[in-house]
Amino acid sequence: MKENIIISLGGSLVTPNEIDTSFLKVFKKSLSKYLPDNRFFIFVGGGKICRNYQAALREFGADNTERDLMGIEVSRLNATVVKQLFADTAFSEVVTNPTKKVSTSKNIIVAGGWKPGWSTDYCAVVLAKNMGIKTIVNLTNIDYVYEKDPKKFPKAKAFKEIDWKNFRKLVGEKWSPGLSVPFDPRASRMAEILKITVAMINGKHLDRLENFLRQREFIGTLIHD
Questions:
Q1: Rounded distance, CA 11 to CA 43, Å?
Q2: What pTM did the predictor assign?
Q3: pLDDT tens digits, one per residue of 9-18
Q4: Residue ranges covered by each domain of the chain
Q5: Domain 3-224 carries which CATH code?
Q6: Which tens digit of pLDDT belongs to each residue from 204-214?
Q7: 126 φ, ψ to 5°?
Q8: DSSP of 77-95
Q9: Residue 86 CA to chain centroid, in angstroms?
Q10: Where are the beta strands (DSSP E) in the chain?
């Protein structure tokens, strides 16, 4: 039996300033080692470029829905690039509705933004519920979950492991378009209810992802019930 794993791929890794094709090639090489024993559902975020667009829209009076629609478009653009990266290994379409069952023999399924009001983290949890998946890997640009922003507080405590109750205290309850937190507050609440495990891993160090997939000790944070 193949193990289904969801990867929430941060847009900041795909397009930090421009599309990082070098990173994407290494990402493909890393995942390809674990096919066909695993099937990966890859949700692709919008990242910094998305937030830049959203900030410009806000400056010109756009409301949350309009800014969210922009985020969805950028997410889907990034997802299209990732789908092409895996070529024939990937399902032929970018999934844009995580509530629908995906029926395919392909081992890579790429997804983008769904609809206003929901982040890609939330969509990943919705898909996990829909497909009965209990593991989400959140590839981001930080090494751990910290008690405070480590850029502002260099001595902030890092967590190698944390339960959902305490994690949700760190990220709060509210979400808005472009919010930059390790995992969306609403997605966190739903993941806690569904007893989903989330591994937070710095995607700039894909050896850490590989260690996790091999069930070895890895650098990152494990969030669970």
A1: 10
A2: 0.90
A3: 988 899 988 8
A4: 3-224
A5: 3.40.1160.10
A6: 999 999 999 99
A7: -60, -45
A8: HHHHHHHHHHGGGB-SS-B
A9: 17
A10: 3-9, 38-44, 108-111, 135-140, 145-146, 158-159, 161-163, 197-202, 221-224
